[in-house]
Amino acid sequence: MDNGFIILSIIALLFLSIYGYTYGSIALAKIKQKKAEKKELMLEEIRLEERKRKQAIRDEKLRKQNKRREEINHELKLLEEMKLNNEKLNKMRVEKMKQKKVG
């Protein structure tokens, strides 16, 4: 009877070790899967932050470009006005000179 109890406990220990090995590998796979998901979420978050940073840089460049465009347009308008004023001034001078010659 004593030997039967030892054999029975060895068989039980064998089944427990098989169950533990099987469950352990499943648990390990779940842990690895959770780690991979966590890593993927972290990478996605990093990608999102990078996209936001790059978008902010693009927005800043666009803002500067639009500001420069407005400055150039303003300068062009001023030059055009100066040109018109010079033309008017020249016409007035020509008219004065004509009046001096006539008069």
UniProtKB/TrEMBL annotation:
Keywords: Coiled coil, Membrane, Transmembrane, Transmembrane helix. It comes from the Bacteria. The chain crosses the membrane at residues 6-29. Residues 29-99 form a coiled coil. This is DUF3552 domain-containing protein. It comes from Jejuia spongiicola.
